[in-house]
Specification:
With about 130 residues, the chain is an all-alpha fold. Helices cover about 90% and strands about 0% of the residues. The longest helix has about 45 residues.
């Protein structure tokens, strides 16, 4: 009998907390949709890129605390603009990756050498 009561109480607590979380998620989703709609409205009134940025900055300043992003306004703006790269720029970036791979190999080789030195030091301590 006590075990049945235990299971009922446990299920009741879990169900209640689950419903509270779901309610919070719904409210948060609605809040985010409202903020997004406000951003859309702000950007609609802009007539050039400079005005777009000003509108975005104003929207960000109005809502950044509520949203709680770890990005400042310029980081978000630059991330958004970076998504608009032309395919030519993407090919140029591929060339950069090749250089990076070469420098990564050099760094890996240097790390291997460093690790060898550390292992030699450890081995000399053990002797």
């Amino acid at each position: 009998m006590a075990e049945e009561r235990f299971d009922e109480v446990k299920d009741s607590v879990l169900t209640h907390i689950q419903s509270l979380f779901e309610e919070m998620e719904e409210e948060m989703a609605m809040s985010h949709q409202e903020k997004y709609a406000l951003l859309e409205d702000s950007l609609e009134s802009a007539s050039d890129e400079a005005e777009l940025k000003v509108a975005f900055e104003q929207w960000y300043n109005d809502h950044a605390d509520e949203v709680g992003w770890d990005y400042d306004v310029d980081e978000l703006w630059n991330q958004a603009i970076a998504g608009e790269k032309s395919s030519d720029e993407e090919y140029e970036d591929d060339d950069d990756d090749i250089e990076t791979e070469d420098s990564d190999k050099k760094e890996d080789e240097e790390e291997d050498e460093d690790e060898g030195g550390l292992n030699d030091f450890k081995n000399s301590d053990e002797e």
